[in-house]
Amino acid sequence: MILLLQWFLYALALLIVSWIVPGFQVAGLWPALIAALVIGLLNATVGLFLKIVTFPLTVITLGLFLLVINGLMILLAAHIVRGFAVHGFWPAFWGAVVLALLGMVIRSLTKNSQQPTA
User: Fold this and answer.
1) For 33-46, what is each residue's pLDDT tens digit?
2) Which among 24, 29, 27, 31 is positioned nearest to 12, based on CA atoms?
3) Is residue 24 one of the residues assigned to a domain?
């Protein structure tokens, strides 16, 4: 149940990013849901591989290079999902920044509901 809630909240986060970041467009809730799923799958597969390969660069940049990788995963997802468009690298990068911030909020909101009750 928590996974479905997080998926929905990340889709809402994509809609919020589309309002904030110019060049980042989501056509509605369904494309946002599909894009959130595709971005999650890309980050778990291709993104994980890129994060392992570029680990030294990530250490040198104090983790900021992870935003570049996340931006690239967003660009790739935009090519896959209809109704989700990102026009260039910089909108993808700033979208990754805003998504990272919103992701921290989402994780903090859903963290409390994951703890078992006594």
Assistant:
1) 999 999 999 999 99
2) 29
3) yes
Residue (of 87, 102, 46, 106) closest to 70 by Cα position: 46
Q: Which domain holds residue 52?
A: 12-109
Q: Report CA Rg, the chain.
A: 14
Residue 84 lies in a domain: yes
Q: Is residue 94 part of a domain?
A: yes
Total residue length of the chain: 118
Spatial separation of the C-alpha atoms in residues 14 and 7, rounded to whole Å: 11
Task: Specify the pTM.
Answer: 0.86
Question: Domain total for the chain?
Answer: 1
For the record, the structure tokens of 5 come out as 């809630």
- Per residue in 63-93, pLDDT (tens digit) is 999 999 999 999 999 999 999 999 999 999 9
Under 8 Å between Cβ of 108 and 9: no
- Tell me the two tokens of residue 97: 């920044």
